[in-house]
Write a structure and sequence with these properties.
With about 100 residues, this protein is mainly α. It has helices spanning about 1-45, 55-75, 85-90.
């Protein structure tokens, strides 16, 4: 029983580490998109040149944020219940047959 708990802890750590890596990667990509938009605004906006940088910057800026939300929000939206409570609280009574 003790080794099983250790395996579950190790698996939880790996999952948390994976979430952290994905979140940091999304943050770095989003910051890069913000820098592209800022550079375009600073350098090319007055002349309206290099307009390809605007949609490219928005894709880099917004896509990782949306992906992170889709990865993180389901964990907050699911109900966490004890297995003992789950069987008793979700039990549907069997209807009585009419004779």
């Amino acid at each position: 029983m003790g080794s099983n708990e250790g395996e579950e802890n190790g698996e939880n750590r790996r999952i948390r580490r994976a979430y952290l890596v994905v979140s940091l990667l999304c943050l770095v990509i989003s910051v890069a998109g913000g820098f592209v938009l800022g550079w375009w605004l600073y350098k090319y906006h007055p002349k309206n040149k290099q307009l390809w940088m605007v949609p490219f910057g928005f894709v880099l800026f917004l896509t990782p944020i949306i992906c992170c939300l889709f990865l993180i929000l389901p964990d907050f939206c699911t109900a966490k219940t004890d297995p003992v409570d789950a069987t008793s609280s979700f039990h549907h009574p069997v209807p009585k047959r009419l004779a």
